[in-house]
Each structure stands twice: as structure tokens, then as C-alpha cells.
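> forwarded from #structure-qc
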């Protein structure tokens, strides 16, 4: 079965053979544009056939001698590459760093099997989608706000943001007031902003902090913060842009984000929190400083780092921030994203149920950047090029997507 790594490798091979279809050329263009460092490749290839044979040896060598693998890569195959071939594909010229591309695309396949043959490759044609998924439309701006006494107010789908005013009133971002029944709100009142599946919304808190909520997420927050502390509670996923101070004439006031598994101490910053129930909690720092507290310990994040808290352990590592925050800009961004994680994102945004067969979840990874405004069938058609097939049906107004390895 061909996964996404293998598919990209196949596209590169077919580009060399000048046999790319228009659809395949678009897919390769999309992959190239995702990373600036993938842009010195095509013009640097010399002996195509020897290079492809060497690639196979790379993969085999990685599994038998991982420590010296990188050194041998530079000493052998990279010597076969020159910088002046000026090879071109119709409509575009690529400049991808081959050393980086080899590591990112071919080696990530993690298999000693031949990723591609040295002859012509055949890709299965994606199936044509019908009206069965017509109900699986992209998400929209939708949410509700729950008042302290339990009253639920649906928010306008023509608006994108709820604003908590200093006067303890609620507004939309264009200063249109939201009518609240049962009298004015009190400073101590706690509100709950809930975003359903296939929804997104944002809220500007009374201190100026802005929080973007992804599908199937909930944020609890007070109408007004205390003078010495600010705290909110999150379930699901949210992107925070936290003001460092409660007011301009005050010193920095602590800001905390509480989830089921941890507490994040914020010191004026931008970060993403993924805290869906039953999953490890991921915190990704874009800018500033945060401290993550949990039963497993405490750690500080630097910009470009992500912590993972699975209750038993709390660890951190460098991460490509866009993979965690693209949703805020209404994008899916897959960069060696495991299939299960990718399908969970699609499931929440398009409100579909993903069902795997008896063989379980395929060991497949995806690359690609897609607008979340695209119809689901368009994204599935592209993902099928990784060798995965999808079937679907609609039962009791529910869209079921079956993954066929």
C-alpha cells in the first residue's frame, strides 16, 4: 500500500520522467510550496537512474546502520548531484534542497521495501464522490453562550467574535450588543462559550485577551477578572493571544488556562492548547513564555516548542508551529501527520464519523495544506492519492466515512 511519503517520491520520479498528469503536478507544487527549504531540488539532479538506485540503498541503510547513515549519505549520493541542470516542469521551476527533501520525504517512509520501482509507476485513480457526502459541509462560525443560571443563547452565524465589555455587557466585534435576558451580568458571573462540531468562534475577554475556539470546544471565563489573577477553563482546542496586563497602569497579572490534565501559567504570549477529552494534552508556544504544571511535573516552553502531557509524563520538543495552529487561519496543515490525527481533524470540522476496518488504522502519514472551506470530497480525493480508499454512507442523518486500507 502506498502512503503519502511514497506518493511524493513517486511524483518526483514521474517528474523526472516527464509523465506527471496535471493533477499530480498540482499535488507536487503544493508539497514544494509548504517548505522554503524544499526549493533547490529539480535543478540539482544529475544522473536520475543512479540517484533512484541510491535512494533505495539509503532506505535499507537507515534500518541497518542508523548512526553512520547520515554521514554515508553525504559521502556517496550527494556527490552525484550538481547545481546547473536547469531541469523544468511545465508551468514551474523547482528549487528544492535535495538533502532536506531526502530526509523529509523518502526516509520518513520508514521501510526497507522499494518505495518506487525504477520503471513506470501506476497510481490508482481516486473514486468519484456522489451526493452521499453532500451533507458533510465545511464548518461555519457557530457557537452558543451559557449564562450562570443556565440560559443558552445561540450566537449569530454572521458574526465571528463575542466581546466582553468593560461595562459587563456582551457585544459582537462590530459593537452590536447581545441581548441578555434576566437583567445585567455581574462581575462574578461565569460564562461558558461552547463551539459545536463543524463550528468555530472567538471571544475577546474583558482584559483584551483574544481566544479562538476550534470545533467541539468549550471555554469557561468570568465576566470580569479579579485584580490579582486571571483564569479560564478549556476543553477542546483554542488559540490564545493573552495580554500581559489586566490594565495598562497595572503590573503584569497572572493568567492561567486550566484543562483536565494541567494548568498553564501565562506571561503575556500567544500559544495553542489541544486538550480534547481522552487525549494527551498538547501545548504549543508561538511567542512569549508559559509554564505548564501537571501531576507529572512542571516545565517551561520556549517559542517553537510543544509539550505533551499524557498524565504519566510531561515532555517537550521542538515542533513546526504551523502544524498545530493552522486551523486558526482556517487551514488543514499536514506534515507527516499520522492518519488517525488527520482524520480526527476532518471528523470534527465536517461532523462525520470515521470508521476503520478490522485491520485497524492504516500506518499512513499525510502531507498537504488545504483550505478548511473546501468540500470534504475534494480533500478526500487528494488523500486517496496516498493509497487509501474511502467509502461512505448516511445513516439517520449521520455521515459515516469508512477507511479502506
Amino acid at each position: 500500500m502506498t502512503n503519502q511519503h511514497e506518493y511524493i517520491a513517486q511524483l518526483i520520479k514521474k517528474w523526472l520522467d516527464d509523465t506527471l498528469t496535471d493533477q499530480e503536478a498540482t499535488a507536487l507544487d503544493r508539497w514544494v510550496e509548504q517548505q522554503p527549504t524544499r526549493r533547490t531540488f529539480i535543478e540539482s539532479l544529475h544522473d536520475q537512474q543512479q540517484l533512484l538506485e541510491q535512494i533505495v540503498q539509503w532506505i535499507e541503510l537507515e534500518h541497518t546502520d542508523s548512526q553512520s547513515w547520515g554521514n554515508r549519505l553525504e559521502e556517496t549520493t550527494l556527490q552525484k548531484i550538481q547545481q546547473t541542470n536547469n531541469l523544468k516542469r511545465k508551468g514551474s521551476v523547482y528549487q528544492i534542497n535535495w538533502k532536506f527533501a531526502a530526509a523529509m520525504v523518502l526516509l520518513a517512509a520508514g521501510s526497507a521495501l522499494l518505495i518506487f520501482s525504477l520503471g513506470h509507476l501506476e497510481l490508482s485513480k481516486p473514486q468519484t464522490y456522489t451526493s452521499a457526502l453532500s451533507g458533510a459541509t465545511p464548518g461555519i462560525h457557530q457557537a452558543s453562550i451559557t449564562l450562570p443560571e443556565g440560559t443558552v443563547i445561540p450566537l449569530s452565524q454572521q458574526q465571528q467574535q463575542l466581546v466582553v465589555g468593560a461595562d459587563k455587557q456582551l457585544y459582537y466585534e462590530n459593537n452590536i450588543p447581545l441581548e441578555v435576558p434576566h437583567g445585567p451580568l455581574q462581575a462574578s458571573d461565569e460564562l461558558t462559550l461552547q463551539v459545536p462540531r463543524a463550528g468555530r468562534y472567538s471571544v475577546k475577554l474583558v482584559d483584551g485577551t483574544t481566544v479562538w475556539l476550534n470545533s467541539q470546544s468549550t471555554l469557561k471565563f468570568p465576566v470580569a477578572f479579579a485584580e490579582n489573577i486571571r483564569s479560564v477553563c478549556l476543553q477542546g482546542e483554542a488559540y490564545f493571544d493573552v495580554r500581559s496586563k489586566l490594565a495598562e497602569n497595572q503590573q503584569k497579572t497572572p493568567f492561567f488556562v486550566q484543562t483536565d490534565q494541567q494548568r498553564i501559567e501565562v506571561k503575556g504570549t500567544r500559544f495553542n492548547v489541544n486538550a480534547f477529552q481522552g487525549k494527551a494534552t498538547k501545548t504549543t508556544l508561538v511567542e512569549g513564555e508559559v509554564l505548564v504544571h501537571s501531576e507529572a511535573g512542571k516545565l517551561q516552553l520556549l517559542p517553537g516548542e510543544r509539550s505533551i502531557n499524557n498524565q504519566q509524563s510531561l515532555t517537550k520538543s521542538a515542533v513546526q508551529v504551523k502544524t498545530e495552529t493552522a486551523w486558526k487561519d482556517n487551514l488543514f496543515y499536514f506534515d507527516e501527520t499520522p492518519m488517525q490525527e488527520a482524520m480526527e481533524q476532518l471528523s470534527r470540522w465536517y461532523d462525520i464519523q470515521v470508521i476503520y476496518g478490522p485491520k485497524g488504522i492504516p500506518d499512513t502519514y499525510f502531507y498537504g495544506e488545504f483550505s478548511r472551506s473546501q468540500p470534504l470530497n475534494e480533500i478526500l480525493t487528494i488523500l486517496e492519492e496516498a493509497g487509501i480508499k474511502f467509502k461512505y454512507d448516511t445513516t439517520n442523518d449521520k455521515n459515516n466515512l469508512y477507511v479502506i486500507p
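QC bot note: The radius of gyration is 24 Å. The chain has a mean pLDDT of 78.
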